[in-house]
Amino acid sequence: xxxxTFLVAxxxxxxxxxxxxxxxxGGMETGTAGSLPDSWADGGKAGFVIDATTVKAxxxxxxxxxxxxxxxxxxxxxxxxSYTLSFWYDDxxxxxxxxxxxYSLIDATNSSSYVEGGTPAKLDAATEWTQYSKTFTATxxxxxxSIRCYEVAYVDEVSLVCNDCDPVVGIxxxxxxLSVYANNGTIYGAENGRIYTILGMDVTEQNGNLKGIYxxxxxxxxxxxxxx
Length: 228
Prior knowledge:
CATH class of the largest domain: Mainly Beta
CATH architecture of the largest domain: Sandwich
CATH superfamily of the largest domain: Galactose-binding domain-like
Strand content: 35-45%
Strand order of the largest sheet: 1-2-8-4-6
Radius of gyration: 18 Å
Number of helices: 0
Number of domains: 2
Helix content: under 10%
Number of strands: 13
Largest sheet: 5 strands, antiparallel
Low-confidence stretches: 5-18, 168-174
Mean pLDDT: 85
Order of helices and strands: EEEEEEEEEEEEE
Distance between the termini: 17 Å
Structural class: mainly beta
């Protein structure tokens, strides 16, 4: 049995905010120092690693340590909806001809469907934390975040939110959409996510000592579950 590894987020005033964060571990807070952050892939081009020396928020960021390193994550989205992708970067000289670029795809299966709408441009140099942001319309059921670097740079607080999605359903409207189950006070599953009480309190860190009715949330999917 695999216990769900949950990421703890700041609790919103309501059970779920309409602008739900879709990126998992966008703050690079979980994983092993010197290795790729949890929930991220490298697309066969290793080089982004967890680093604690230069951070935008929290304890860690992702540092580019080699040429053509990639930081990637595929996320479920809704066709026709507007999304905003953003991330922060720092300590980047833009000396390499390719530098640091956003190669993210509107359609995860189409290698040329760039969020930029054309060939991605090299980002400007940064000696302090600088934000990149781009709004786009989803054209497929999945998009891929793909940040690539060809020289030293730090990336942190990667975010993807939907701008015009319907508000997430309330606690009594949650339908079963996830493959998770509970046993002896613990919720298990194969995906990263968060646990909330029916009053909206984030109890993710208490997994293993739960009892009652909870909502598990992974990306834009939710499931109500009883824990005995």
